[in-house]
Write a structure and sequence with these properties.
mainly alpha; single chain; 12 helices
């Protein structure tokens, strides 16, 4: 059974999306305060990607603007690592502009941490993201990756077996977006966690976490039809996507 599921997952990872790529043409103009505060949030996040601690929350709270409020709220919720992160305001699909702002945070973070290239001025990084076309699926994937730490922290102790992710109510445009959400949530819940437990051969703990998993659209994750009917991102995109680092294990534990 494990071999069968590995083959299925490799099949999905080897398919190339046939439909045309969907791009968000950013060209977002921020006023000076929004740009300055967004960069400051990104730099704070880059040094504390778990968004933990009262000082972090206090610092980014001071950077609020009407345009950045939801980003601040989401990062504070991630840092709490409690049921707050399951509120619809954080699980629902953000609008296109906010998704681009989250991508600015991503690029500033990797600009600082990538040791293979010389770091560029953060303003240049931000302006480049704000002015270029970005595949909307990348943008959505990035958002859920940025908040998935809060889900992972919550699941360390919480029993979510009675919780249901109602993906039909989260504003997704199509099944591809639902699949991106699903993979990010499963990665947060079991991705790295199950990898470690499998290496430790702690099957008892794996089964314990399996019993606490939530449902998606009222069904257990392995019944979700989205993954068997919808190709996700292109092969190249999947290879580089952070969510794929731990997703394979999701399909091999049962």
């Amino acid at each position: 059974m494990q071999t069968h599921r590995r083959i299925i997952m490799k099949y999905f990872l080897s398919l190339i999306l046939l439909a045309a790529s969907i791009f968000t043409k950013a060209q977002i103009k921020l006023d000076q305060k929004d740009l300055h505060n967004l960069i400051a949030i990104a730099e704070l996040y880059s040094y504390n990607t778990d968004a933990r601690g009262d000082q972090f929350a206090k610092s980014i709270d001071s950077l609020r603007t009407p345009k950045l409020n939801h980003i601040v709220d989401a990062l504070i919720a991630v840092g709490k690592g409690d049921h707050t992160i399951l509120e619809t305001q954080f699980l629902a699909r953000p609008n296109e502009e906010e998704l681009v702002l989250w991508y600015v945070i991503r690029e500033i973070h990797y600009n600082r941490t990538n040791e293979k290239v010389k770091a560029r001025p953060v303003v240049a990084v931000a302006n480049e993201v704000l002015s270029k076309q970005i595949d909307s699926r990348w943008l959505l994937d990035n958002y859920y990756y940025r908040i998935h730490g809060g889900i992972a922290s919550l699941f360390n102790e919480a029993d979510l077996s009675k919780y249901n992710f109602n993906m039909d109510s989260l504003g997704f445009k199509d099944d591809t977006e639902k699949a991106i959400f699903f993979l990010n949530m499963m990665d947060a819940l079991v991705g790295g966690r199950f990898k470690v437990l499998q290496m430790m051969k702690n099957n008892k703990k794996i089964l314990e976490f399996c019993g606490k998993l939530p449902t998606f659209n009222g069904k257990e994750y392995f019944y979700l039809k989205t993954l068997t009917t919808q190709i996700l991102i292109g092969l190249d995109s999947i290879k580089q996507s952070p969510i794929m680092n731990g997703t394979l294990v999701v399909f091999t534990v049962h």
